[in-house]
Specification:
Elements: H1 3-30, H2 34-41, E1 54-59, E2 65-69, H3 82-94, E3 103-105, H4 108-111, E4 125-127, H5 128-138, H6 141-152, H7 155-168, H8 204-217, H9 221-225, E5 229-230, E6 240-241, E7 264-272, E8 276-285, E9 288-297, H10 305-320, E10 321-327, E11 338-342, E12 348-353, E13 357-362, E14 370-376, E15 381-382, E16 390-399, E17 406-415, H11 424-446
Parallel strand pairs: 11-15
Antiparallel strand pairs: 1-2, 1-9, 3-4, 5-6, 7-8, 8-9, 10-13, 11-12, 12-17, 14-16, 16-17
Helix pairs in contact: 3-6, 5-6, 6-7
Length: 447
């Protein structure tokens, strides 16, 4: 082989690969598959890199967890504990135990509070609503304590109610000793709890669960938590400023613009030297509401770092996930298209799902639910059955694509057709037919 051939031979193989690639691209373009090829190469979104020891991101519609970091670690929540106080005060109003317009007299415990407060003096009178706004917007410790005493008679009894409610809501890593989240040493000595040990702690997951319950059970709270400022007394020179700098409306505030995040309208900040910088936030965009929690963020309050870390979580949720319906409403369940019926014109009724099953999934991820159980309300069903009646439930099992945890969810099954009650003559003939059918089968089985 001459020198010319020795030099040119290695070039043949790259040339062949180039030609093959060109043909493949042309083929994909011809059939409209170029976008498929690029999508297939695209990786699932990477989780955020947070400068926080504990955090969680949750879908406020379903409670689905999209991201978690040491989410079950019990930590001092500081004023984030006031979310429970807000929840209990609102529930007391809904139950008729309190009225928003009730005027209450400020007691000694409230007047002696330190930290964030609106300088309530013992003997002052204010409405439940005014104190509640001071709690929600300015995180006022004095207003919070007075509301706690109005609900439960004393702050210590209120703390017991907080702990009881935490258990009921499924908050497994929370413990409350007061209504404010202040450390025991910062409480007036006379009013420190004697029947509750320890300090107040809460996990990021529990904070998200509490935020989820507030949004579900008390959505009106967001009308208060999104207030940028509020003047507590007419004579006050300056209004109370909301500690939540992430409020979307702060985009027009030159000082807070860099922290403002579109769609944020709650929920609660918290800070002490022991707790660090904490925040439970919620944001609504394009019909999807998320709840994000960061705990123990370092730095000073004025740095606003907790809000910057929360923004990373919201960005991850809104940009990297999409809603996907994995079970359609009014769809039949394979192998369970009908359920048995007795005393009806028909012996079975076709059934379909009452609602759809929609989850947030990372863009590009696939979720395949599997039927775990179908359970009729009674077996067999008894006619008459009207179209749309609930006749049972179906439980699906699927793997959460973001946490890889096995999940189950149950939705109702409804009748897609009516089954009227059979006449006595029809039922008699059916019974006779069934008798002879079983008799014949018994004879067959003998042989």
């Amino acid at each position: 082989m001459n020198r010319h051939h020795q030099l040119s031979l290695p070039l043949i193989f790259p040339l062949k690969r180039f030609v093959a690639a060109a043909v493949l691209v042309s083929f994909l373009s011809l059939f409209g598959l170029s976008s498929f090829a690029s999508a297939a190469a695209e990786e699932l979104p990477a989780p955020p890199q947070l400068e926080a020891p504990s955090a969680i991101l949750m879908d406020a519609g379903t409670g689905q967890v999209l991201y978690q970091l040491n989410a079950d670690e019990a930590r001092p929540p500081a004023s984030m504990a006031k979310m429970m106080s807000e929840y209990l005060v609102s529930m007391a109003v809904k139950q008729g135990k309190l009225n928003w317009d009730d005027k209450v007299t400020i007691g000694e415990n409230a007047a002696k509070q330190i930290g964030s407060r609106i300088l309530l003096a013992q003997g002052d009178q204010h409405t439940i609503r005014d104190l509640y706004i001071a709690l929600a917007v300015y995180s006022a410790n004095d207003a919070t304590v007075q509301l706690a005493e109005e609900v439960a008679g004393s702050e210590e009894e209120f703390a017991k109610l907080m702990n009881q409610t935490a258990v009921e809501l499924g908050m497994t890593n929370s413990h409350f000793i007061n209504s404010t989240g202040l450390d025991r040493a910062d409480m007036p000595e006379k009013y420190q709890p004697t029947s509750i040990d320890g300090e107040t702690t809460m996990s990021a997951r529990d904070a998200a669960i509490l935020g989820y319950r507030i949004v579900k059970d008390d959505p009106e709270f967001l009308e208060t938590s999104k207030l940028q400022e509020h003047k507590f007394r007419e004579r006050d020179k300056t209004p109370m400023k909301n500690w939540n700098w992430m409020l979307g409306t702060n985009k027009d505030n030159p000082t807070l613009r860099k922290f403002a995040y579109e769609g944020v309208d709650g929920l609660k900040t918290g800070h002490t030297s022991r707790a660090g910088q904490n925040f439970t936030g919620t944001a609504l965009r394009n019909g999807t509401r998320l709840i994000a929690v960061v705990m123990g963020v370092g730095g000073k309050t004025e740095d606003g770092k907790r809000f910057l870390e929360t923004a990373k979580l919201f960005d991850y949720g809104f940009k990297s996930f999409e809603k996907k319906t994995i079970v359609e409403a009014k769809a039949s369940v394979p192998e369970y298209e009908t359920l048995k019926v007795k005393k009806g014109k028909a012996t079975s009724v076709p059934v379909v799902t009452a609602t759809d099953l929609t989850v947030l999934v990372p863009k590009g991820a696939v979720v395949e639910p599997v039927v775990q159980e179908v359970k009729p309300v009674e077996d067999p069903l008894v006619a008459p059955i009207a179209q749309g009646d609930k006749v049972g439930t179906v439980t699906y099992k699927y793997k959460d694509p973001s946490t890889q945890e096995e999940k189950t969810i149950t939705i109702d099954l409804i009748a897609s057709e009516e089954v009227s009650k059979g006449s006595w003559w029809r039922l008699l003939l059916r019974a006779i037919g069934n008798f002879f059918s079983s008799l014949f089968q018994g004879i067959v089985d003998l042989f």
